Amino acid sequence: MAAIMSGGMWASVVLAGPSDDKLVIDEQIEMTTRTAAPEGHPLDEVISGWHYRTPETRALETDTFQNPGMLAVEEGAQIWETVEGTEGKSCATCHGDASESMAGVGANYPKWDEDSGKPINIELQINKCRVENMGAEPYKFDKDGQKPLTAFIKHQSLGQPVALDLSQGDMQTWWDKGKDLYYRRTGQLNLSCATCHEDYNGYRIRADHLSQGNANGFPTYRLKQGALVSIHNRFRGCIRDTRAEYPAAFSDDLMALEVYVTWRGSGLSVETPAVRQ
Ligand code: HEC
Ligand code: HEC
Q1: From 119's CA, which of 9, 10, 150, 276 has a CA 20 to 30 Å away?
Q2: Residue range 4-37, pLDDT digits in tens
Q3: Is any ligand 2 atom within 6 A of the Cβ of residue 134?
């Protein structure tokens, strides 16, 4: 506590536990928002960021018609059907109905990619298909269809438990690297991800209520931005808040963090598009 307070960052730090509500979407899909942590996890219970938001913000996620992130998901559905590139193909040309072909797929990413010898996330898999299968340009970070299409694909796993297969390729090495980064203190404030999301989860700082920083809702809709926010954008924002230099999107550092942080949320339901403050 002393270390963090002496950073001068927070005027007051107050403990306020996560809510006890249950998240049921459209009165149908019972979401797992609290679950026993996987073996090797430092906490006993894994808790979705949903529990740390205000009642009003939580309510927006219970109804797909009210969830403002669903507009982007619908945009993603249209992109799915849109022909682009020199091959004259759309995603649907090869993958058909996404509610079948993509059901559950987003819950298992990042996955190992043999071709690049690295983990790949949905954003990079989309680019891979655009380049190799459509003859189209890859999306630049957070540009064009990247966020809506990623949200659309992940939304096909709504309610499915996050589960990574760390036995694929070198996934374990990337997990180790991600863990290392998670606990490394950086920036002028000398904070690590773990300082805020492990030691201080459940505390209120300024107008915020610190969660465990899980990745199960991404891309998430942020009310503050009025837009979808990708996972690498969120990581960069958090690193910037420690007043450290932040790595490039899709860099090895952020991919390693994505593997490790996603794993920390194992067993939570995919909430995409989650609604956050
Ligand atoms: C010419 C056919 C073709 C087109 C067009 C195509 N893909 Fe693919 N896609 C594949 C193949 C082949 C694979 C690898 C085999 C597999 O996993 O099904 C793949 C894999 C994927 C996967 C990973 C599936 C998994 O189980 O991990 C996703 C996600 C995906 N594509 C999304 C897209 C999106 C989004 C588009 C449109 C931007 C698209 N694809 C366009 C052929 C295509
Ligand atoms: C100075 C404190 C601080 C540090 C350090 C920090 N974060 Fe955060 N982070 C926040 C705040 C505040 C939020 C928004 C409220 C919440 O969900 O905790 C947030 C949100 C998140 C979320 C979104 C959670 C959700 O449910 O939508 C993720 C993921 C995340 N952080 C990951 C990280 C990672 C990875 C690191 C280290 C690179 C990190 N954070 C470092 C303060 C911090």
Answers
A1: 276
A2: 544 455 556 677 778 889 999 999 999 999 999 9
A3: no
Nearest residue to 130 via CA among 184, 91, 180, 103: 91
- d(CA 236, ligand 2 centre) in Å: 10
Q: Which pLDDT value is given to residue 6?
A: 45
123 and 9 in one domain?
A: no
User: How many domains would you assign to the chain?
Assistant: 2
Distance 275 CA to ligand 1 centre (A): 27
Nearest ligand atom owner, CA of 93: 1
pTM: 0.95
Same domain, 232 and 267: yes
Do 185 and 230 reside in the same domain of the chain? yes
Whether 86 and 132 map to the same domain: the answer is yes
Q: Which helix (H) or strand (E) holds 14?
A: strand 13-15
Residues 164 and 40 in one domain: yes
Catalytic residue among 77, 103, 238, 244: 238
Substitution site in 238, 239, 264, 276 for ligand 2 pocket (most atoms within 8 Å of beta carbon): 238
In a shared domain, residues 249 and 167: yes
Beta bridge partners of 34: 47
**Averaged pLDDT, 144-172:** 98
Could you report the per-residue pLDDT of 63-95, keeping only the tens digit for each? 999 999 999 999 999 999 999 999 999 999 999
- The ligand 1 atom at the shortest distance from the C-alpha of residue 91 is 37
Centre of ligand 1 to C-alpha 94, Å, is 7
The identity of residue 141, as a single letter, is F
Q: Are residue 48 and residue 175 in the same domain, yes or no?
A: yes
